[in-house]
Design brief:
Blueprint lengths: L13 H44 L3 H8 L29 E9 L3 H8 L6 E4 L6 H11 L2 E8 L20 H13 L6 E6 L7 H13 L3 E4 L8 H8 L3 E3 L2 E2 L6 H18 L1 E6 L3 H10 L8 E2 L12
Parallel strand pairs: 1-2, 1-8, 1-9, 2-3, 3-4, 4-5, 5-6, 7-8
Length: 318
């Protein structure tokens, strides 16, 4: 048996002490790694939540608005396209024929509304009452000097299956209720120059109620443009009786949302203006509509003059 070399005597329990220290060190390291993993998991969870929220807020504006507001239908177009309600053609005017383009149903998308304001040629914006962006859009029209109208919701034949939206004038209303609602609608957009109907294929056939509506418009010195959603509209005789500045739509531009169709409708509008001196086209805040107008309106400068709607209306018989 080998003899132990001389030296310092070994302290009892030293080997066991090293084992205890190693075990404690491992526990500390393990606990530290656990803390790091918990921290990393927390960071991952936090940024995952933020990313999901960002995705939700990145939903297109129109989808956000649709989730928060019930957007009225843009229009109920006549089943058969109504021919322009024009008098016998006059001799060709010495000046360029005048065209007015009205963009209806404005108020639920401020960005596309501003694109219409930015056109080199004037258009008239007709804004729905109580729409979420009506005030913002109305303020911007002052910056661009864009003419505005109230797009007045009126009862269609299809009501209540089709709802014209907030502020609608209904044939079931009493005279007081009708006038009260009309005044509330007008007060949402102070300083508009005129009004045109949103839907209204039933209301515009009711002579007594149209007289009541036009009596308020006359007191406020507002004009009325009939969107002509029905051939039976009595807006014209009502306007004649109360001497309200008046005009009627000749063409809907975009009830088929295709670029070629809108170009075709613009050509029709020009032909009507050349034949009669003036014409009114109504469009809507569709992306395809603004794209076509941006492209086509500059080409019309030598054929027609584009003007605000207020310059085309007139008191019938004057």
């Amino acid at each position: 048996m080998a003899k132990r070399k001389p030296g310092r005597p070994r302290k009892p329990g030293k080997r066991k002490l090293k084992k205890k220290e190693t075990s404690t060190f491992k526990r500390i390291v393990g606990f530290g790694l656990l803390l790091i993993l918990v921290f990393l998991a927390g960071v991952f969870t936090h940024y995952t939540i933020i990313k999901n929220r960002a995705r939700q807020t990145a939903i297109p504006l129109k989808e956000n608005i649709r989730a928060r507001f019930k957007i009225p239908a843009f229009e109920i177009y006549p089943k058969k396209e109504l021919p322009p309600a024009k008098p016998i053609p006059r001799p060709a005017p010495k000046k360029l024929p005048r065209i007015s383009i009205i963009i209806d149903d404005v108020g639920y998308d401020s960005r596309i509304a501003e694109k219409f304001m930015q056109l080199d040629d004037p258009v008239t914006l007709s804004i729905l009452p109580f729409s979420p962006f009506q005030k913002k859009i109305f303020r911007k029209t002052k910056k661009y000097n864009t003419e505005t109208m109230l797009h007045l919701p009126m009862e269609p034949m299809e009501y209540p299956r089709v709802d014209p939206g907030p502020g609608a004038l209904l044939t079931s209303m009493s005279p007081d209720a009708l006038i009260t609602q009309l005044i509330k609608n007008l007060d949402t957009l102070p300083s508009v120059k005129g009004v045109n109907n949103h839907m209204g294929s039933k209301m515009t056939t009711m002579s007594n109620q149209m007289y009541q509506i036009f009596s308020i418009l006359k007191k406020r010195n507002l004009f009325f443009i009939d969107s002509r959603t029905t051939a039976e509209s009595l807006s014209r005789p009502s306007a004649r009786l109360l001497k309200i500045p008046f005009a009627q739509r000749d063409i809907f531009l975009d009830h088929v949302q295709e670029a070629d169709f809108i170009r075709k409708q613009l050509k029709k509008l020009v032909r009507i203006a050349v034949r009669h001196g003036t014409a009114i086209g109504i469009g809507h805040p569709h992306p395809v509509t603004i794209d076509v107008l941006q492209e086509e309106l500059p080409k019309l400068k030598n054929k027609v003059e584009l003007v605000p709607a207020s310059t085309i209306v007139h008191v019938i018989g004057s």
